[in-house]
TrEMBL record:
PANTHER family reported in the protein's UniProt record: PHOSPHOGLYCOLATE PHOSPHATASE
Parts forming coiled coils: none
Organism listed in the record: Natranaerovirga pectinivora
InterPro entries: HAD-like_hydrolase_sf, HAD-like_sf, HAD-SF_hydro_IA, HAD_2, HAD_sf, PGP-like_dom2
GO molecular-function terms, A-Z: phosphoglycolate phosphatase activity
Cross-referenced SUPFAM superfamilies: HAD-like
Alphabetical GO biological process terms: DNA repair
Pfam families: HAD_2
Protein name: Phosphoglycolate phosphatase
Domain of life of the organism encoding this protein: Bacteria
Length: 217
């Protein structure tokens, strides 16, 4: 299935990075801000509930989570999440899934071109790039903010001519699989990430661990 792959597009959060470790505390801090400013009612959030928002752009997340929230309060809460996540990354709280670096080294060594494609913002992209030394492995870094938060499948459509065919996209959410389907390329769904299994139904293949890529690519 993957014999002629030249370029691998990687989602980041929930695929390479166990970002719940920084997103959950950042979300809870922002939610407390909402409570303090009469923007939300008190609620105890489980980590699983919070992590379910990972993989969305910040705009998508707020539209689904609190569509009627005052825009100024929403922007401030969104800033709190971003600032806290970047702060936690800078102090060493970020965590790549076990085997991620080994897998990236293997794929790079095999001659694949690796491309970072995330629904994140620019500051977050640059922070993880620096903290995890991702320039060692990736030839390019693409994020939703650079493309005015258009859907991931549209970002891919805009850039695909810059990369060698054939291609595969790897990720844990519906956005990643949708990118594969709508652009007629292979996709690999990550069952260990933050999406539910139904989101990965149309994936070409599914994995339980990032290290499985070594056996199939």
């Amino acid at each position: 299935m993957f014999q002629n792959i030249k370029t691998i597009f990687f989602d980041f959060d929930g695929t390479l990075h166990d970002s719940s470790k920084i997103y959950v505390p950042a979300f809870k801090k922002a939610y407390q801000f909402l409570i303090d400013n009469n923007g939300a009612e008190e609620k105890e959030w489980t980590d699983e509930e919070v992590a379910s928002w990972l993989g969305y752009t910040s705009i998508e997340m707020w539209k689904k989570f609190m569509p009627n929230l005052d825009e100024n309060i929403r922007k401030e809460a969104s800033k709190i999440i971003g600032k806290e996540m970047n702060s936690l990354l800078a102090t060493g709280s970020g965590y790549l899934y076990d085997g991620t670096i080994h897998t990236l080294e293997y794929l790079k060594g095999k001659g694949y071109s690796l491309v970072f494609l995330s629904n994140c913002g620019n500051t977050y992209k640059e922070t993880v790039r620096k903290v995890f030394y991702l320039d060692k492995y990736f030839s390019n870094f693409l994020c939703a903010e650079e493309y005015d938060y258009i859907p991931k499948f549209q970002i891919f459509k805009e850039v695909r001519d810059q990369y060698k065919e054939e291609m595969v996209i790897i990720g844990d959410r519906i956005h990643d699989i949708e990118t594969g389907v709508k652009n007629n390329i292979h996709s690999i769904g990550c069952l260990y990430g933050y999406g539910n299994e139904s989101e990965l139904t149309n994936a070409s293949y599914c994995i339980q661990s990032i290290t499985e890529l070594i056996n199939i690519l």
